[in-house]
Each structure stands twice: as C-alpha cells, then as structure tokens.
Specification:
The complex is a heterodimer of chains A (257) and B (283). Chain A has 257 residues and is mainly alpha-helical. Chain A has 10 helices and 2 strands. The N and C termini of chain A lie far apart (55 Å). Chain B folds into 3 domains: 155 residues, 3-Layer(aba) Sandwich (Rossmann fold), CATH 3.40.50.300; 71 residues, no CATH class; 38 residues, no CATH class. The model of chain B has no long low-confidence stretch (mean pLDDT 92). Classes of the chains: A mainly alpha (257), B alpha/beta (283). At the A-B interface, helix 8 and helix 9 of A face helix 4, helix 5 and helix 6 of B.
C-alpha cells in the first residue's frame, strides 16, 4: 500500500511520546534557534535532536531529508560568504571570488538553524503515525472534518495517482504516444486530464455518499476506538517544554533590554 | 407495521427533463429480502438513494411523495439520523473505503466513532461484523490492500456494525469476480437470517431468485411489478423491460415446463425437481 508518509514503524520510547509534545518540541526548537544566536546553544539543541532521533532508531532516515536541503545550505554559505553586508575580513580566495569570515560565520549560524528545524520536524514525521497525530489533534478540538481531510489525503492521493497510471496505460494501448520531446509529452497529457478529473469527481461524490451513510455529519459527540491515556511522563515533558518556551521568550526580551 | 413505506414517490434530477422515479408505491415488511431488477436507467439506483434519504437530501431536484423508514419520514430528518436505521452499500467497493484509516479494524470503527459509541461496545460490534463477513484474518491489513470481494465485504461489515435494521445494496457484485460475488451473497443471506431487511439491486438474476422473497421490476422510473421471483420471471413481457430471466427459467419456458401453480421454476433445484417429476409422470 502506497502512502504519503515518512513514518518509520519502530518500538521505541520516542515513538510512544505524545504527538502534541513533539509539536511543542518543534516549537521550542524553532524559538530557541531563532531567538538565541549563540553557537553553543544551537549546537546543544541540535545534539539533543540528534540524540532523540538516535533513540527513535530513525537517525539514518534523517540524512536523506538533510541531503535534500543541501543545495539550499550550500547556497547560504556562498551568498553570505560573498555578499554579507558585515563582511570585512577576507578568509579564502577562490579565483576572483573572496569569501569573508563574518559572512561564513553567519552562514554557519543559519545552517545550524535550518538543521535544527529539519531535525525537530523529522522527529515528528519519522516517529509519529500520521493517523495518530491527526486523531490526537481531533481529540484536542481540531474539526473532525478537517482531520478526515488531512488523514485521507495521505492515502487517497497515491490511489488517485495509481488511477492516473491506469488511465495512462489505457490511452497508451490505444496508440497515445507519451514518450519523446517535451511538446509531445505535453500533448499526451491533454487526453489524460478529462478521464482523470471525471474519475476523481465521481469517486469523490461516491465517497461523500458512503461517508454520509457512516454518520460522518452526525451531531453526536465523536468517540475514539484507540485509547489515549496520557501518562504522567507525557505531562512532565509537556510542562518542561512549555516552561522552556516561556523561558526562551522571557530571556530574549530581558536580554534585548 | 411495515419497515419501509413508499407512497407516490416521484423524483427528477436537477437539469433533467424526465422523471427518474415516477409514482412509485410499495411496502416492505421486516426481515424481507427484496430484489430490484430493471434495465439501465430504470431508476434502480435512484430508488435505493431515495430509500436512504440521499435523494433528495444529498442530490437536490424535484421530489414528491414520501418515504417512511421504520416510522421516520426521510425528508424530515438528517442523513446521519437515517443512517442509524438504514445502511447502504454502493457498487464500487473502492470508493466506500474512507481512506482515513490504516487497518480493516479501524475502518469498521469509523461509523461507530461517529455514532459516539463506547469503546467496549465498538470492539464488540467490530468483532461481530468481522466474524459475520469472514474478515477476521484480515483485520490488521490496510483496507486498500484487500481484493475487490474482500473490500466489498468490508463495506458491508462497516454498515452492519452500525446495526441498521435495513440494508440497501446497490449492485454490490457488479465489479466482482464469481468468487467475490458468492462471498457477498453468502454474507447477505447470513444477514437475512439475522432478521435484517435487505433491499438489493442485482443483475445476477440466478442468484437473486435463489435468495429474494420478492422482486421489484422497474422500467423508465415506474414500478412495473412487485411479486415473488416465480411470478416476476414467469412474465412473458420481460424482454420489453430489458430483463432476462434466470437460465433455468429460460430453459423451462422453452420446453413449456410449468409447476402446478402455472409458474416457471426460477432456481436450479426447482427446475430439476420439475424435470424429474415430469419424467416420472411420463414413464
């Protein structure tokens, strides 16, 4: 079953942490890295994130995510190294280009911020089942309709794509050429749109009817199949994270004065 | 009191000129298995949707007459209220999967969660539905990984778990292979044994004759006849309505073999009995 999710099923303590706490952790990571421009703090936050990823046995899965953003990181170094307005001290010459110390240091700060955010988000998406995350949010007041849209899109979009493949195969079997020059490919796309859109509309209408028959719009207060017992450990983490967020904001305000 | 009462039902889809349902009236008693037959465009699916309130609550259009389900008039209540009384299974098993649940077990729970049931009651009902539809061994699979027949049984199980007293099935086997069709018919006959009223649109007339108590013949939105399978398939004008009788009936019609009531047999057993009796009589 294809599914739009990066979740890795492992039996670790990180996987068992309440999804809301992971969201709070992302918030805390972003706030700390954005409000505090100290290398030691940024490195410490990154180390904590990496340790948590290691504990969740998903550290290997973070590297593809980081490498995906590598081009952005390299661009940051080049642009800041060459053009940062505070650039004064030349560090290295590559041909005609001079990279300055101030720009490079600032670019490292930015890179650490990006890595921190990436690792914090990875912790959520790699160790939390999407359905658990959405169910958790619905329990806490997110509209069940919005929750359904978020949960179903992860499975229904891959299904729609496979329908597209079937339509593509059907059109190919009737002689449609889909390989070759760009113009040819664009032309081949047009006969696919009609059946794909019609198919999706019909499926959506039928699914809406099926949902109605399952009491989707019922006014009764929704209950949940899965138990959700919040442990005292979860609560402790939550209070610590909230305290950390408040402390960071207050510290920044005081420090700015 | 009849479970379903339909009086002078008329319906026209938005922008359509012709009535999809034209002055239809009938009653269905508790625990009956009703088959609906007719050519394409006869109004079978529209009638199913009218029984479940989807017409006119979901599709707008011109509507007249009344449909009363277990004492509740469908136009005077909400779809979710009606869905507690009457469940519907559609043709396409794929579109009936919600897409928001990762296992068959959770998929069945979807409707029960919307009903606000307690967890223990939910689990009891899900287990019961899984056993009834022979899906227990698939309970941890992703719904989209099931075969067509299994997916259709899951759609039925999801409705059964909500414990409606009436289930409407709109061509549930149209996209299934013979094995899948047999699975669905077996499941539906088990439901009838449990006292659930069944309304089923089906083109597989051999199967329908075997299970249905009465059959409704529709044509151009009108109710042509509503009687036992033998009486319906013994009609001489079925071709005019785009309907073909079961193969056993066709054979007996071709040799003029009728039972003592002057009707043609509709199932294999009935046909065999009649042929044996005729041979014994002639020898």
């Amino acid at each position: 079953m294809r599914m739009m999710s990066l979740y890795k099923d492992r039996n670790t303590i990180v996987h068992k942490i309440d999804p809301l706490n992971k969201i709070l952790y992302i918030l805390a990571s972003i706030l700390i890295t954005m409000l505090i421009s100290d290398f030691k703090v940024l490195i410490l936050t990154l180390v904590v994130s990496l340790l948590l990823l290691l504990l969740g046995k998903v550290i290997k899965n973070v590297f593809p995510i980081i490498s995906f953003s590598l081009i952005v990181l390299v661009t940051i170094v080049i642009i800041q190294g060459l053009f940062n307005p505070n650039n004064k001290t030349p560090l290295v010459n590559i041909g005609q280009f001079i990279f300055y110390k101030e720009g490079i240091i600032y670019s490292f700060l930015l890179i650490l911020r990006v890595l921190n955010i990436l690792c914090a988000f990875s912790l959520l998406i790699l160790t939390t089942k999407p359905s658990d995350l959405i169910e958790n949010l619905v329990r806490r007041g997110l509209s069940p309709k919005l929750g359904y849209v978020l949960a179903s899109v992860l499975q229904i979009i891959p299904q729609m794509l496979s329908t597209m493949d079937t339509i593509l195969d059907a059109q190919r079997s009737r002689g449609l050429e889909t390989e070759g020059k760009l113009i040819k490919r664009v032309k081949a796309f047009i006969p696919l749109i009609g059946p794909a859109v019609m198919n999706s509309l019909i499926s959506t209408r039928e699914r809406a009817m099926a949902l109605e028959m399952r009491g989707f719009n019922s006014n009764i207060k929704k209950t949940f199949l899965n138990e959700h017992d919040e442990t005292s450990f979860d609560k402790l983490i939550r209070y610590l994270l909230i305290a950390l967020i408040i402390f960071t904001i207050v510290w920044r305000l005081v420090w700015l004065k | 009191m009849a479970k379903i009462v339909v009086e002078g039902l008329k319906y026209r889809y938005p922008l359509a000129k012709k009535l999809a349902l034209n002055d239809i009236s009938f009653e269905v008693d508790e625990g009956e298995f009703i088959g609906i037959i007719g050519a394409n465009g006869a109004g079978k699916s529209t009638l199913c949707q009218a029984l479940t309130g989807i017409v006119p609550l979901f599709f707008k259009g011109a509507y007249g007459g009344r449909v009363v389900i277990d004492g509740i008039e469908v136009t005077k209540s909400s779809l979710s209220e009606i869905s507690l009384k009457i469940g519907m299974v559609l043709q396409n098993p794929f579109t009936q999967i919600t897409g928001s649940k990762l296992t068959v077990y959770e998929e069945i729970a979807f409707g029960l969660e919307n009903m606000g049931l307690e967890r223990e009651e939910m689990k009891r009902r899900i287990d019961e539905a899984l056993m009834l539809l022979d899906l227990y061994k698939h309970k941890d699979k992703n719904p989209f990984d099931l075969s067509g027949g299994q997916m259709q049984r899951l759609a039925i199980a999801s409705i059964i778990a909500m414990q409606p007293k009436i289930i409407v099935l709109d061509e549930p086997t149209s996209q299934l292979d013979p094995q899948g069709s047999s699975e669905v018919f077996k499941a539906v006959s088990d439901l009838k044994k449990k006292g659930i009223t069944i309304i089923m649109v089906e083109h597989k007339v051999e199967k329908l004759s075997e299970y249905a108590d009465r059959i409704m013949l529709l044509h151009d939105g009108r109710l042509i006849d509503f009687d036992t399978p033998s009486k319906i398939f013994s009609r001489d004008d079925l071709k005019d309505y785009g309907v073909v009788e079961p193969v056993f009936t066709r054979y007996c019609k071709s040799i003029g073999l009728k039972n003592e009531m002057g009707l043609y047999p509709v199932t294999l057993d009935e046909a065999v009995d009649l042929v044996v009796k005729k041979r014994e009589h002639s020898s």
